[in-house]
Amino acid sequence: MFPILILLALEIPDETKRIALKIRMGDSKAFKFFFDVHHKQLYRFLIQRRVREEVAQDLVQQAFIWIWEHRSEIDPDKSLKAYLFKIGYTRMLNQIRDNKKNSSLDVYELDSQTSAAADSDLINSELKDKIYAAIAQMPDKRRTVFEFCYLQEMSYKQVAEILELSVKTVENHMGLALKFLRESLADANN
Questions:
Q1: Residue 46: predicted pLDDT
Q2: Quick one: which of 3, 58, 142, 170 could link to 138 by a disulfide (CB 3.0–4.6 Å)?
Q3: Using CA atoms, how far apart are residues 161 and 167, in angstroms rounded to an integer?
Q4: pLDDT at residue 68 above 90?
Q5: Which regions of the chain carry the CATH code 1.10.1740.10?
Q6: 184-190 own/partner pairs: CB under 8 Å, 24+ apart
Q7: How far apart are CA 155 and CA 49, in angstroms?
Q8: CATH classification of 1-114 is 1.10.1740.10, yes or no?
Q9: pTM of the model
Q10: Is 51 helix (H, G, I), strand (E, B) or coil?
């Protein structure tokens, strides 16, 4: 029984590659399978970030549309699930940024603590700009790990699962990201 479980575990990446290749080639059935497997996961991920339900539904839809429209760019050797979550996360950030310009549209479910945090954010906007500039300079994988773990308050285990990495790799990326941030902020204050 034990060797069968090992073989099944080893076959998962090949299956994932096969589905990614099929989607890349325009196979709508493979895309529907991918959609069915990951739709609720991405939706829950956005809801956990306190995005309103209707906004989360729209962002999920946009992420899957992006995958389909840009399917020719899919790299089967990279995690399509991680790519999907990164698209959803980026769309969420874009939505928040765009809605700051039009305050009549709220992306988040707000409560009094969130409002107080928003006031505090305005006071610290210069520091935040420095932090986001430093984050933007990080390598892609490290930045993604940092954003999920630190900014989105996900556990290392959750991030490892989404990005299909080991927990130790996530820990290493976070250590390097925090060191880079400390150094960047120290340089900015000098």
A1: 87
A2: 142
A3: 8
A4: yes
A5: 1-114
A6: 184/130, 184/133, 184/134, 184/137, 185/130, 185/131, 185/134, 188/130, 188/134
A7: 13
A8: yes
A9: 0.54
A10: strand
60-69 long-range Cβ contacts below 8 angstroms, 24+ apart: 60/88, 62/87, 62/91, 63/87, 63/88, 63/91, 64/35, 64/39, 66/91, 67/23, 67/31, 67/34, 68/23, 68/31
Torsion angle of alpha carbons 50, 52, 54, 56, nearest 10°? -20
Listed residue (61, 60, 22) closest to 44, CA to CA: 60
Which fold does the domain 124-190 belong to in CATH? Arc Repressor Mutant, subunit A (1.10.10)
Range(s) of the chain covered by CATH 1.10.10.10: 124-190
DSSP per-residue codes, 60-127: HHHHHHHHHHTGGG--TTS-HHHHHHHHHHHHHHHHHHHHHHSTTS--B---HHHHHHHHHHHHTHHH
- 26 by DSSP, 3-state: which? coil
**117-132 confidence digits (pLDDT tens):** 444 444 455 666 677 7
**Residue given tokens 């076959």 in the structure block:** 11
DSSP 149: I
